[in-house]
Amino acid sequence: MDKLIELRDVRKVYSTGRLEVQALRGIDLEVGRNEYVAIVGPSGSGKSTLMNILGCLDTPSSGSYTLSGEAVAGLDRNRLAEIRNRHIGFVFQSFNLLPYATALENVELPLLFAGVSTKERRERAAAMLERVELGDRMEHKPTELSGGQMQRVAIARALVNRPTILLADEPTGNLDSASGKAIVSLFEELHAAGQTIVLITHDSGIAKLASRVVRVQDGQIVEDVRAAA
Amino acid sequence: MKTLLAELRLVLRLFQADVTHNRKRIALTVIAIGWGTLSIVMLLSFGEGLRQSFHTNTRGMGVGIAVVWPGATTRPWAGLPAGRPIQFTDEDAELIAARIPEIDGVSREYSTRRGVAVGEKTVNARIRGVDASFGAMRNITPQPGGRFLNERDLQEKRRVVVLGDELAQDLFGSQDVVGRTVQIQQSTFTVVGVAVPKTMMGMYSGPDKGQATIPATTYKSMWTDHRMSNLIYRPVSPELGDQAKAQLYRILGGRYRFDPADERALGVWDTRRNQQITDNIGLGIQMFLGLIGALTLFVGGMGVANIMYAVVQERTREIGLKMALGAKARQVMAPFVVEALMMTAMGGLLGVFVGLVIITAIGLVPVTDDALAFLGKPTFSLPIAAATALILGSVGTLAGFFPARRAAAIQPAVSLRYE
Ligand SMILES: Nc1ncnc2c1ncn2[C@@H]1O[C@H](COP(=O)(O)OP(=O)(O)OP(=O)(O)O)[C@@H](O)[C@H]1O
Ligand SMILES: [Mg+2]
Asked: For the whole model, what pTM was predicted?
């Protein structure tokens, strides 16, 4: 099994004035190709901090992180931007769509930053919106879409540049249960099609569907269970 | 490059979204920039008008000429005591013309105040007797249909006169009076020319517009006991001015036996200096006005920067998102710079447009007042346009750049969490 993610003794300390918060205290984690990992744990345990580091949005205070064979520590901001663009697809709890842009334009964004030509961008973004069953909503602005539809636009955006890993932080947190289910089954489809997924969730029902559940507590991994295939 | 172009569409969208959101704030900023631009355009244009009027008006008395008055010696020389007054004679002019190659024009000038009469009407005016070369040197240009004094007027001691424009107006109520006659000291003079109106920044014995100019020979025949008041001369080129002056002291010093180093033996007014100084003053005034305008524009620029900081703040999450999706620093910053530039450009166009309207309107108003004539017409020139564009461009770029740089410096993990 290819190792896509390799964390070694990763620590993250936030210092806010006098206080020091140890958000992560020595995380060792390996994620292989086409795994579907659910990260669970109580609020404040460090899940989002872990995801930020996995997604190269933040850097560890110590420890090493190798993503797809490349050591991430010490890379400059532009190189990190490239890595995020090429390897990571993000799905956030609050969707994070540009409100003034159409669904299609939102999905085109990662390709825009990758320097893909207008025509190809258009085609790939449209295809990806079809894939999440929003082919009829391409010209709609986020405000004209339901929560579930917005999250599907966000997923299309996350996938459009064919990322190595899909990272999702509470993607169903802002959705009603029906829309949430639709998102979860979309994730299952994607995993079945070969996508590597790391998903953060509070919902044990959703976590059960993953092929592996990692439990975080107080900034440490306390449990790592692989479902029998 | 392609990415930037594609990004531009998005930037325009952003700007549009911004305009609808912050209509008032953006309008105020654009107006501030417009105001700054207007003031810089107006100030520079007035400065340019003033500079040009300075330039022509200092040349109203003639270009590069020098005026020489007889003085008195201050040093003993060749056995003669100090304090001896000098007096010019007619031969001096010929001697200077013949012996000083650096000088290509000389004229005598006799001068007095007398009544000039037309019928019942008498105007007390300055009468001067000069040589034919005086007109060209002293920038006295005849109006169409007339002429200045010529050599034959002098040889034949003709009773002809060239009138200043104001004097002609006062005497006849018109300036179209060539061929008419005036009485000076019971003698009848025929008007051969009326001078073109002009503004003079420097002068001696009054402005040219109020004077009556007659041949030096005629003058001498009328007032036989009058002494020559002064000479004027023009060097071959402005660079030879100092040499010409030294030669003048040497030649006249030899003739009247004074030390060529005795400055006060002659009073020399070298107008080249004044012209240079006023040119520099004009330039200085323009730079000063430009600086004030630039400062005003700078204040407008602060307004743009302020707005951009607020916009960056508002879009912190969006910036974090773009970075998460792989935007590089340049790609995050470009929209802010472009947006600031757009605001600046809009304000700039507004300011230049209003400025041009005002300048054109001022240009249409006829100038009757002397002081206004001296101020000159505000002139919008290409260099002013270029300077304005350059200042506006840098103000806009800087106003966008600093907030944008701040935006790009935030860790994406931090900006994404921003509410
Ligand atoms: N930027 C920060 N500055 C200071 N402390 C922080 C920062 N981000 C997170 N923390 C702290 O680090 C710890 C872990 O936070 P994190 O957001 O990773 O938790 P989480 O597991 O995602 O919680 P939740 O399930 O509520 O989202 C918390 O104690 C939090 O207060
Ligand atoms: Mg969290």
From this structure: 0.70
